[in-house]
Amino acid sequence: MKDFVNKNKVAVIFLLFFVGLALLSGFYLKNNFKQPKPLLIEPNQGKSSLSIDLPTAETEIETKITSLAEKVAVVAAVPEKTVKADSPAFLEAVAPSPINTTPTNEEGYTLLINDRQYNINLPVNKTAYDLMLALQARGDIYFKGKNSAGLGFFVEEINGVRNNSFKNKFWLYYINGKSASVGVSYYILKPKDLISWRYETPQF
């Protein structure tokens, strides 16, 4: 053994040096970098005995969002322009919605097409043509025709039945049972009027 040490003095010295250095390093690390003990929090009536206030990123974001929402609400609650109570803008804002005061014929009007009866209410001062348009809009009847100079609207077809000049059959209308003397678009309706359409041969 002595012979080995004598032959390898340099190697043994380096070995001892590094061993000592390792021991010193370990001792130093042990004394200066001790691992902290875990913090134990014991319950105390539903609450921890030690209160730690460490704001997290999540709580910070929630706080910022809440603050921003409050600012937006305050800004939205402030009117852009102060309106005086007697100003036209204020009066227009608080004015009630207009009520439809157009008078109507409460008794309504009656239209007969080949003895089939239709009833409807209309505002006053409407024509027999308006009566037919209202019934068509409601889906009760269908008609078509064209405007004629001097005669107004000339009915050519009602409910799929067209005027037929070869058979001398035409749609003619009557007012309260009497042959009309004016065009359908010129006659102003009167209360309790009965307008009749008959598909027949003219008598003139």
Summarize the structure.
The chain is 33% helix and 22% strand.
Widest β-sheet, arrangement of strands: 4-3-10-8-9
SS-derived structural category: alpha+beta
Low-confidence segments: 46-52, 96-102
Classify the beta-strand content into a percent band.
15-25%
Order of helices and strands: HHEEHHEEHEEEEEE
Number of helices: 5
CATH topology descriptor of the domain at 109-200 = Ferric Hydroxamate Uptake Protein, Chain A, domain 1
Report the major sheet. Answer: 5 strands, mixed
Instruction: Specify the CATH architecture of the domain at 109-200.
Output: Beta Complex
**Can you give the mean pLDDT?**
74
Number of strands: 10
CA-atom Rg in angstroms: 52 Å
Distance between the termini: 156 Å
CATH class of the domain at 109-200: Mainly Beta
Give the % helix: 25-40%
Bulk shape: rod-shaped
